[in-house]
Amino acid sequence: MTAPPTLADVVSVLEGLYPPSTAEGWDAVGLVAGDPYRPVRRVLLAVDPVAAVVDEAVDWEADLVVTHHPLFLRGVHSVAATTFKGAVVHRLLAAGAGLYVAHTNADSAPRGVADALADLVGLTDRRPLVAHVDDAERGLGRVGRLEHPTTLREFAEHVAAVLPATAQGVRVAGDPDAEVTRVAVLGGSGDSLFDAVRAAGADAYLTADLRHHPASELRERAAFEAADPAPGEAGTPFLVDVAHFASEWPWLAYAAADLAAAFEEGTVTTRVSTLVTDPWSDRIASPGH
Description:
The chain is α/β, with parallel strands linked by helices. It has 10 helices and 11 strands. Helix 2 packs parallel to helix 3. The protein is globular.
């Protein structure tokens, strides 16, 4: 029987898929906890390194947890189990499991967060929304065309159907009957790329965490510049805002498949957590809306 890879072997594969050098300068990616010489047979993948995910990892006897979001994004002076983040580290290590983070380096990678989201909504002829200087296939977000034109309402309904269900659901800004053909997507918080979305000529922008003022200003500018719109234009780009967790979860399946495929069949088993770790638990609609 072939011996399982070590944690160092698995980290090497992950860093080949998602080079740490491609992470944003403010980010914190890579191995957070774990012994590089321990064998890895089971890997659990999740969006967030939260207590419920640790519970799942321990129950499944995972040797490694790979998450998208960092546990420690800022410097810390203690990982004592008296803190909620320290407790995560202690519980994983006590169970013999490590923790690895692939964040903005996974956002931009081929078959990363952006590609997974683009595939899910059916974008073709696509490219990065903001490409890396030295790699035309790697970069933040994706922009491309839908196979068939649709309305903003139908596009948003499709997004709601293919993403994990969350309390937020899908919010839309724009004429629901307007035509949508060219779409930009970005998993996670996306209002910092509004200028790139406009420059790409997208009819709609699918992302998460849209704030009031940036979204309002984008839509006001779109309406102003479309005072005499060309046929088929109605103040683009429209906005389709989903839960942060939901926009990034589709990538986990790609990461799980690519990691398992890097080793001899049956050596490493991967599992995608289906726990909804979005922090919002309910939504109360305004009466009559």
